[in-house]
Amino acid sequence: MRQSFTILPGFEGLNCILRITLVPSGEVAGVQIVKSSGNAAFDRQAENAVRKAAPLPVPSDPRLFQQMRSISFVFDPQT
Amino acid sequence: MYSTHKPEICWLRPTRALSLVLSLILAGGLPVTAGAQDGELTIRIEQGIASPLPIAVVPFALVGDGVGSVDVAAVVRADLARSGQFAAMPPEDMPSQPASFNAVNFKDWRVLGMENLVIGKLLQDPDGGYVVEFRVIDVYRGKQLLGYRIPTSQANLRLTAHHVADLIYERLLNQKGAFATRIAYVTVERKSNTDSTFRLQIADADGHDPHTILESKQPLMSPAWSPDGTRLAYVSFEDRNSAIYLQDIRSGEREKIISGPGINSSPSFAPDGKRMAVTLSRDGNPEIYLYHLESRSLTRLTNHPAIDTEASWAPDGRSIVFTSDRGGGPQIYRLDIEGGDAQRLTFNMGNYNASARYAPDGRKLALVHGGDKGYRIAVLDLATNALNVVTNAKLDESPSFAPNGSMIIYATMGAGGTELAATSTDGRLKQRLALQRGEVREPAWGPIRK
Amino acid sequence: MKGAGLKLMVVLLTASLVMGCSSRATKTDNAQSRAQVEDRTGSRGTDDTGGAQAQPLEAGRGLSVAALNDPDSPLAVRTIYFDYDSANIRADFGDTVAAHAELLAANPGVSVTLEGHADERGAREYNLALGERRALAVRRQLVLLGASAGQIRTVSYGEERPAVGGHDEQAYAMNRRVELVY
Predict the structure, then answer these.
(1) Which of A2, A14, A31 to mutate to test the interface with B (most CBs of B within 10 A)?
(2) Which SS3 state, helix, strand or coil, does residue C114 take?
(3) What DSSP line would sit under B73-110, residue for residue?
């Protein structure tokens, strides 16, 4: 994910939190911005990083998958 | 043009890192904090890569007769790539070339990791005019981010293309673009030591459409834009001494506004466009004066037996920075227009700092920094007082900020003489602007064109 | 004209005391050749049968042209070179400045333009100011040695009109200069 999270000029000191909902195949069902960075470009790059990484490798065990159905991602690049 | 920054093709294998992260989490190898909801995983991403944003600008569909004299998409593509912030996909690598939203096959582009797609049309009106229509599409969300229909004309097609690039840049980077701008500069054609031709020229920021607005056998120097971009002030030696002229760019009408004994130079428009800071030595040595364009009157700003010159206005118009050697060598000082003492800004930063120019946000200065390795462009952060040298040649000079503050254009020594180059303010990205043969110097980046 | 020659010798002696000179022999040679110049132009001035008002001007012009065209005259040296970022007149140009001061002092109708120049390094506008400072330094010395300020016009071209191309110290040394243009 860090490989696909693109840092652009003006991203210094920004962070955001996204909540990702997954389907059992590992595809992204939804992305919700829990806390915006205040910079639309930053939020979008964070979301793109998640979407580009899909499908995510999820466990085939349904009980384990339940734990991962919803994941929060904190994007807080240390620049 | 070249770029020292290799665009990283980050869309080739985006999943590996996350797979690794998730595998580690599942294996209990990475700390995972509980989120707001019980049992929810929270993953912190604390690293990213500073890499250009992938974008595909699909060749625009041509509708109507006589269209196609300007490849609008190619101009947009080149602008975005030149900024260093975008990795523009070459048309031959594109899986398809859709011209409408419905024709976009998102899956094809996602496979390539392409995040941003620009599609458009160039249409000819029945009355002979042109319309540029374009959309920016978010590939991963399958949504339109931006869509415009811009009426234009044959003569303004390139300008419109630059406007399109500015709109895309601003939407995707959350920062203003500076593609629809022009630069002024001086060229010198040297036939012999005593026979030179000096030309004051203006070109688009991408180097296109250069044209001469003044030619002289005597030196021309220090072009300075009026804030509205309609006029240039400059120094001409045509009367065997320096004098300051003001020229209307469109009409070519020019007027000698300041001449007198000694130096008459270094014009710099105040942000209000009504005043100009100039350097005159009529009172015995170079001092900075305020010239009021309407009343044609002068107010003296500095009074020191040392050299005071090269004024640059703070964007709020309340102060200037300038070069003075009152401390021994040339250093940068700041002065309030309303009065007070000049404050030195460059301390313990070497023996030579000159030609300071304010960044459009007023937080930084670009300047010429002289040291053991030569004369280079440096950026001084006014808040932290950190000086960052951003170029690495031996004879770099005349820095000028792009109106969006993203780049600094400057003059550097090339194989065939002085040429123009640009650097990002952090020095990460560099480009050369191959304008023409011979000497090209003293670039001044103009304001955004309407 | 004899008076002028004597004055020149005095000025030269003063100059040599002030500036310090590399070789006494050279000094004498210079003085002699300059005296000859004065003699020659003096006689030409006498031959001149122009009107009374025009005479000083004509004589002055004749004097300067002849002397400036004489390769043996110190007046043939019309470029003064400077050190980096400096407007100090170097000791080796003391004679040259003194000779030109004498010429101007003796010929109030003669005027000279001092063109100040800088090498290409650093800021153009700062270099324009530096060129002026060099021209003013030469003017100050000329006036100190008897020339009248009204005879001297100064102009700075900064780094805009280099004498030689090239981007090395040798070229820079040739470009940091004040040219005396009669």
Answers:
(1) A2
(2) strand
(3) HHHHHHHHHHTTSEEEPPGGG-S---SSGGG--HHHHH
B395-406 pLDDT, tens per residue? 999 999 999 999
Lowest mean pLDDT among B122-131, B359-368, C64-73, C151-160: C64-73
Q: Please report how many Cα atoms fall inside a 13 Å half-sphere around the Cα of residue A76, on the Cβ side.
A: 8
Distance in angstroms (rounded) separating the CA atoms of residues C109 and B133: 74
Amino acid C95 reads D
Tell me the torsion sign for CA atoms B210, B216, B217, B218: negative
**Side chain identity, residue B146:** L
Please give the C-alpha separations between residue A9 and each of A12, A15, B84, B410, in angstroms, as whole numbers. 7, 14, 11, 21
Check A3 against B17: CB less than 8 A apart: yes
Q: What is the pLDDT of residue B149?
A: 95
Does A56 contact B36 at a Cβ distance shorter than 8 Å? no
| Helices (H) then strands (E): counts for chain C | 6, 4
| Residue environment code for C78-95, b if the CB has 16+ CB neighbours within 10 A, otherwise e | eebbbeebebebeeebbb
B37 contacts on A by Cβ (under 8 Å): 70
Residue type for C110, please? Answer: V
Per-position b or e across C122-140, b if 16+ CB within 10 A of its CB: bbbbbbbbbbbbbbbbbbe
Q: What is the DSSP letter of C172?
A: H
The model carries a pTM of 0.81
Of C147, C87, C91, C137, the C-alpha closest to C114 is C137
Map tokens 């428009």 to a residue.
B269
Residue environment code for C8-19, b if the CB has 16+ CB neighbours within 10 A, otherwise e: beebbeebbeeb
Distance CA(B281)–CA(C153), nearest Å, equals 14
DSSP class of B113: T
Whether omega before C74 lies within 30 degrees of 0, making that bond cis, reads no
Spatial neighbors of B49 by CB under 8 A, at least 6 apart, are A2, A3, A5, A6, A7, B8, B10
A4/B contact by beta carbon, under 8 A: yes
All residues at 6 or more sequence positions from A1 whose CB lies less than 8 Å from its CB, including other chains: A49, A50, A53, A73, B17, B18, B21, B43, B45
- Does the interface predicted TM-score (ipTM) exceed 0.90? no
Contact B207/B435 with Cβ under 8 angstroms? yes
Q: Is the pLDDT of residue B411 over 70?
A: yes
| DSSP 8-state class, residue A6 | B
The answer to whether the CB of B377 falls within 8 A of the CB of B399 is yes
DSSP 8-state code for residue C62: H
For A28-68, the DSSP string reads: EEEEEEEE--S-HHHHHHHHHHHHHHPSP---SSHHHHHHH
- Residues 6 or more apart whose CB falls under 8 angstroms from that of B327 comprise B344
